[in-house]
Amino acid sequence: MWDYSDKVKDLFFNPKNTGILEDANAVGDVGSISCGDALRLMLKVDPDTDIILDARFQTFGCGSAIASSSALTELVIGKTLDEALKITNQDIAEYLGGLPPEKMHCSVMGAEALHAAIASYRGEEWSDDHEEGALVCKCFAIDSALIEKVARENSLRSVEEITFYTKAGGGCQSCHEKIEDILLAVNGPQSTPVKVAMPVKVATPAAATPTGLTMVQKIQKISAVIDDMRPQFQMDGGNIELVDVEGDTVKLAMSGSCMNCQSSGVTLAGIQERLMLTLGRPVRVIPASFPHS
Amino acid sequence: MTSAYMDNNATTRVDPAVLQSILPYFSEYYGNPSSMHSFGGDVGKRLEEARAHLQSLLGAEHDSEVIFTSCGTESDNTAILSALAAQPNRREIITSTVEHPAILSLCDHLERHEGYRVWYIPVDRQGRIDLEAYTAALSDRVAIVSMMYANNETGTIFPIETLARMAKAKGAVFHTDAVQAAGKIPLNLRDSAIDMLSLSGHKLHAPKGVGALYVRRGTRFRPLLRGGHQERGRRAGTENTTGIIALGRAAELALEHLEYENTVVRALRDRLEAGILGCVPHTFVNGDLESRLPNTSSISFEYIEGEAILMLLSRANIAASSGSACTSGSLEPSHVLRAMDIPYTAAHGTIRFSLSRESTEAEVDWVLAQTPPIIEQLRRLSPYWGINGPVSNGTGFAPVYA
């Protein structure tokens, strides 16, 4: 079973604002039965003040879809339409005390329903540009549709490029085979390196050999890896910095949303793995605080 | 009674008699069966007894046709990879669209990365195999046919003997994933055309982490794991002695309870099914009702979603599972239900109840008492549901599809 927050469970078992809102003047129907989620959001908007006086929902979906819908109604009641439009799926997820990465689409559906309802009230056309595929990267909740789209639009050829553009594959790295498969589908068999079974007597990769590194060389190599990964953290409004190296222990400081993100542990593990590959020897990465704070 | 375990196709409780039989092999007779000293006690002998019990359960001609593995998935992988390695000139595989991922993921991999051609034989609305498509796919290019004995989600039993004989006529190896069937329906491999069969311990009241692969004598075999001499060199690696002894005892018990399973358990399942269908509208049973495991019931509750049902059932201490997308993290509902062309609105709301010889009348009563209000509660929340039934198509709910 999913590890739902208490708030999600509470709002699933005791959802607020359910059922039909008889005098609704803004209705948004979104979702997809094939994805197993569909939501009707009904709003009663005061025409003079644009304030949302009441909100109700009906949802076909899993526990977190129902909880997200309930959260949405609670978030919008009392807000003006313009204020409501500022609500993002992140706000819904936050209100719920977080959602498993596989379930973030439930909060996205909530935000979409809100936009659709407000568009219907204002007589505007609302179109959904959201596409969903199977979840590939569990650390950063990136699905196959996004990876495919970005790979196609930017002619990406390698897993590293995908990680740089989408963050997918930047954490625990266990989705790299899936990403390679997507690249193969997008680019055809010629353009991606074919995986070959390694013969036993293959030369050890150069990266795995440096044994006699001086401390300075070692720190330079570690810094290069950290610099290489920094853009991923900055995309999340965070940062990462090398604090110290003691023997085989590397101390890193991380900040921003990465810190609170449930995958920060995984991210540390991902960095550790990259460092081991680069240095060719086991290292241990431990979190530290920024030296200047 | 305030709880009900209806998820025996996922896993079963280890039978207390099975547990008792293995405890000394953790603490007293912990030696390696390959060692010359006596710390292994009679453990080597116990392994051979276990093999004999498996032989009886399967109705196999020789006990040496049983190879112990770590799980059903290992057995499945071993069978397919062995058949391919042993017949390098045959580059095609036949399987069905409703197999377990242990078969489907491997076939998909072999197709995309190893250049094999895979034929996925479709099923009809009742989950029955399309014999015409199967006949058309069979040829002397086929190395192996792998068809599940009984489906894990619906319990539908394939006509395995017919399928096996047809495969043999083309010289193909025939493998069946009998993980759900073994211990629930009689098997007689002595008089069968089946070459290989997989089973798993934890589906028949043995612990997780042990399985077996039956390989008919004379079938060309290539091991998956190479190393020591264990299992006559066909599956290297120190034996999971406690797991194997447990599986042997569990096989013995399963054989003893075979009739019970097909009379008492079947009656419990039928009462559960009829009870739910009788009082919850817009509900139907999936699978081939003429040919189905006695313990499995797949019920679609239309217009609501399975994970939500499971969460409410779980709050009522009822364990079941769903064919819904949301429980697995993928967005598509169960590939089995989709292959059967069950509409999305129903596939998402499908719940599998699976019983065992440990299931009781009281458990069935509890499920029958708890389920209808849960379904009603979720339908009240559903935009596809009106006051007393589904909203009609013209005036109904038509979301912008993602």
Structural description of this entry:
The complex is a heterodimer of chains A (293) and B (402). With 293 residues, chain A is α+β, with helices and mostly antiparallel strands. Chain A has helices spanning 6-13, 63-76, 81-85, 89-95, 104-121, 144-153, 159-166, 176-187, 215-235, 257-260, 264-279, and strands spanning 26-32, 37-45, 52-60, 135-137, 142-143, 239-246, 249-255, 284-288. In chain A, a hairpin with a 4-residue loop joins strand 4 and strand 5. The two termini of chain A are 40 Å apart. With 402 residues, chain B is an alpha/beta fold. Chain B has 2 domains: 4-10 and 258-381, Aspartate Aminotransferase, domain 1 (Alpha-Beta Complex); 16-256, Aspartate Aminotransferase, domain 2 (3-Layer(aba) Sandwich), CATH 3.40.640.10. Chain B is 37% helix and 14% strand. In chain B, the strands form 3 sheets. A 7-stranded mixed β-sheet of chain B has the order 2-8-7-6-5-3-4, with helices on both faces. In chain B, helix 7 (160-169) links the parallel strand 5 and strand 6 (173-177). In chain B, helix 10 packs across helix 13. The longest helix of chain B is centred in the last third of the chain and has 22 residues, at 258-279. Chain B starts with a strand and ends with a strand. The mean pLDDT of chain B is 94. Chains A and B meet through helix 1, strand 1, strand 2, strand 3 and helix 2 of A and helix 10 and strand 14 of B.
List its salient traits:
heterodimer; A: 293 residues; alpha+beta; Arc Repressor Mutant, subunit A; GMP Synthetase, Chain A, domain 3; 3-stranded mixed sheet; 42% helix; B: alpha/beta; Aspartate Aminotransferase, domain 2; 2 domains; 13 helices; 14 strands
Quick rundown:
Chain A is of the alpha+beta class and 293 residues long. Chain A contains 11 helices and 8 strands.
Which two chains share the most extensive interface? A-B, 46 and 36 residues
Radius of gyration of chain B: 22 Å
CATH architecture of the largest domain in chain A: Alpha-Beta Complex
CATH class of the largest domain in chain B: Alpha Beta
User: Taking strands numbered 1, 2, ... along the chain, how are they ordered across the largest sheet of chain B?
Assistant: 2-8-7-6-5-3-4
The count of β-strands of chain B is 14
What spatial form of chain A do the alpha-carbon principal axes imply? elongated
Sheet with most strands of chain A: 3 strands, antiparallel
Q: What's the overall geometry of chain B?
A: globular
Give the count of structural domains of chain A.
Answer: 3
Cα separation of the termini of chain B: 44 Å
Named CATH topology of the largest domain in chain A: Sufe protein. Chain: A
